[in-house]
Amino acid sequence: MISRPLTESDRPALEALLGRAPDYNVFHLSGLREFGLVSPSDAAGGLWSTGIFERGALVGALVVVRGTGGIYHVPGEREVLEAIAEAVLDAVMRGRLALLSGHASQIEPCLPLVDASIGGRLDRCHFCSLHEDDLVFPLSQLDFGEPKLATGDDMERLIDFYQRGFYSLAHLPSRAAWRNRLAEQLAFRTLFFIEDAQGQIASAAQSSAEGGPAAMLGGVATLDGYRGRGLSTACVAALCRHLFSAGIKTVSLFYLRDNAPAARVYEKLGFRPAGEWLLVPMGLGILFGNL
Fold first, then answer.
1. CA-wise closest residue to 6 among 79, 58, 76
2. Residue 57 half-sphere exposure, CB side, CA atoms within 13 Å?
3. Strand-strand pairing, 68-73 and 2-5
4. Please, is 11 exposed, middle or buried when counting C-beta atoms within 10 Å of its C-beta (0-12, 13-18, 19+)?
5. pLDDT in tens, 164-197
6. Of 20, 37, 151, whose CA–CA distance to 77 is shortest?
7. All domains of the chain, ordered by start, with CATH?
8. Which of 27, 140, 159, 207 is the most exposed place for a label (fewest CB within 10 A)?
9. Dist. CA 236–CA 172, nearest whole Å
10. How far apart are alpha carbons 47 and 61 in whole angstroms?
11. pLDDT tens digits for 205-215?
């Protein structure tokens, strides 16, 4: 068993490995498409990976982009899992990994091996998936237009919308920061919105990752004054339909267990439970020990 940083020449092998379970690895398949593969020491804003090789074949990997990492291995391969755990501990010690994020089938077996590096409360989220044939499209919303695909021409209105702040979404410090974030979104991913009669954006939904045949949803939000009118449902439905028409086979998402409104929206649209997604903060246990 050999562990080493992957280089751009390893990219086809990494994509093939992650492609075995694209729904679980969509963030990193998307990151490879957007950023390519860089060295761990040169990873500011980029994506890097430590690979586990057995007899020359890539059999497991830790993949990290912007401090958030996921792992992939074939369940039941104990030696591979132990090698991945060593890579996780090393990344935490070097300050390169702040959060483990991934499907419970991948993350949970690793947790006992990295327990000392877990730095906070683990969040267990519902994980759901949708296939095209299961999408239930809602009725049109009275008093609102149809959801629209966002373009660069909508940038300033999008910044106005997201700067208001929404629970569970990013809080960026300036319009310039939001402009950079949304420019990346529009270049590599997808965003739909609904506007009110005055042309103000009332609701929006984004894909947070698109890689291979899979996509992940995120950034679903509605202004307080327009909640309860089905706008989020309409935005997500339009976004999913667009992704399916572009060749995506599965759209997935995860949300915190106590988010009942999200559960109702996604169930109406045809999303079905597909296990759990775990969010595990890393680092403080190593830095401070037991307090």
1. 58
2. 7
3. unpaired
4. middle
5. 877 667 778 899 999 999 999 999 999 999 999 8
6. 20
7. 2-126+279-288 (3.40.630.30), 136-269 (3.40.630.30)
8. 140
9. 23
10. 13
11. 999 999 999 99
**210 burial level (CB within 10 Å; 0-12, 13-18, 19+):** buried
Residue 15 to residue 178: CA distance in whole angstroms: 30
Closest-CA residue to 251 (of 102, 135, 140): 135
pTM: 0.90
- Listing DSSP states for 27-74 in one string gives HHHHHHHHH----GGG-TTSEEEEEEEETTEEEEEEEEETTEEEEEE-
Judge contact between 124 and 278, C-beta under 8 A.
Answer: yes
Helix and strand numbers, DSSP H then E, in the chain: 9, 12
Q: DSSP secondary structure string, 183-219?
A: HHHHHHS-EEEEE-TTS-EEEEEEEEEEETTEEEEEE
